[in-house]
Amino acid sequence: MIVVDNLVKTYPGAGGAGEVAALRGVSLNIPDGEIFGVVGPSGSGKSTLLRCLNLLEKPTSGRILLGGDDLSTFSGADLRSARRRIGTVFQQFNLLHSRTVLRNIELPLELAGLGKDERRTRASSLIDLVGLSGKEKSYPSQLSGGQQQRVGIARALAAEPEVLLCDEATSALDPDTTDQVLDLVAEVNRTLGVTVVVITHELGVLRRICTSAARLEAGRIAETGRITDLIASPDSALGAAMLPVGDDPSLGSTADTAVVTAIGDAAHGPWLSQMIRDADADIAVVGGRVEQVGDVTVGRMRLRFTAETDHARVEQFVDRHPHLTLSWGAGTELEGLTE
Ligand SMILES: Nc1ncnc2c1ncn2[C@@H]1O[C@H](COP(=O)(O)OP(=O)(O)OP(=O)(O)O)[C@@H](O)[C@H]1O
Question: What is the pLDDT of residues 211-242, one digit of tens each?
């Protein structure tokens, strides 16, 4: 559905300073129907990527294909109609305060030249979809943050886009409201089949609704993959960050600590007692958690082994269990992302 091919975006530097390379050759393949997360620390290029995707910014080079059409070649009327294929939900909602809920949602349809009856019908059914029935005549100032964002989502969907871009759409909301708005985005994805791209610095957003993700670092893709594959991979810094199990500094040397991740049914299985027997190892559990990641349960434990433990026997045990992965040592920290 969305193919980003070697995207480069360079801005002129301020006050005659050298150029700023915001994106340095980003390539992504986002299949139809995914909820794709883009994460990265401040300045890594997330907003620039989003503005290139919703055609507010022209790439310096590279291509963006949507359903096979190269959006970077469009201009004039073609560009305006291409923009309607992509709906954006903003962090600060960006609603018009002088307009009611209904008329905020109708706005993109007015701009597209739709007649009043069709606008009303479409906006009313979107109001139902986002759970705001009865609020048609309210003004944004009469709504909670979560309700305002529901209007933002309905407005972004009004022109029946193929892609919904969410730009830190839950950053201004409290945790409970965040979960409700994320669940709405997931429901919209399921019921309308719209592909969703979520720009965020919150790892909880990835865990709750994303099917795949990419991590940006200094304008480049540092890693990308399906969420469960990233979590299962001992080499993925994003996978480690998505389910941290704490680093207790009192552990001292990390040579005898490891993180074991169990995916799916294995998360509820007796793998730890089996490992202890099988590898003849004494094990202390020094951190752990079990989380629902999308529709998969993931368990992760930080274990400390005694100096006598035979690492090879522990590794052989893990190798025999396809739903377990192991990573020795303390792991890496990712800056700029929050739980
Ligand atoms: N209009 C602009 N003019 C010049 N430089 C820019 C412009 N927009 C972004 N940049 C620079 O491009 C780089 C990437 O910025 P961008 O806003 O895309 O990062 P980000 O990951 O979205 O950061 P944040 O999470 O803080 O919003 C930064 O070095 C930024 O200073």
Answer: 999 999 999 999 999 999 999 898 899 998 99
Q: Determine, yes or no, domain membership for 337.
A: no
User: Any idea what the Cα angle at residue 5 is, between residues 34 and 74, rounded to 5°?
Assistant: 95
d(CA 287, CA 298): 14
Residues 315 and 278 in one domain: yes
Asked if residue 96 has its Cβ within 6 Å of ligand 1, the reply is: no
283: helix, coil or strand?
A: strand
Amino acid at 62: G
- Torsion angles phi and psi, residue 106, rounded to 5: -75, -20
Residue 161, domain CATH: 3.40.50.300
Contact 154, 105 (CB under 8 A): yes
Task: Mark whether 53 and 197 lie in a shared domain.
Answer: yes
| CA distance readout (Å), 136 to 95, 133, 302 | 14, 7, 51
Which residue is closest in CA terms to ligand 1's atom 6? 11
Ligand 1 centroid vs 108 CA: distance in angstroms?
27
Condensed to tens digits (0 to 9), the pLDDT of residues 252-298 reads: 556 688 899 999 999 999 999 999 999 998 998 988 999 999 889 99
Global pTM value: 0.92
Nearest CA to ligand 1 atom 13: 22
Tell me, in angstroms, the distance from the centre of ligand 1 to residue 11's CA: 9
In a domain, 237, yes or no: no
Q: Whose CA is nearest to atom 17 of ligand 1?
A: 47
**Residue 289 belongs to what domain range?**
244-328
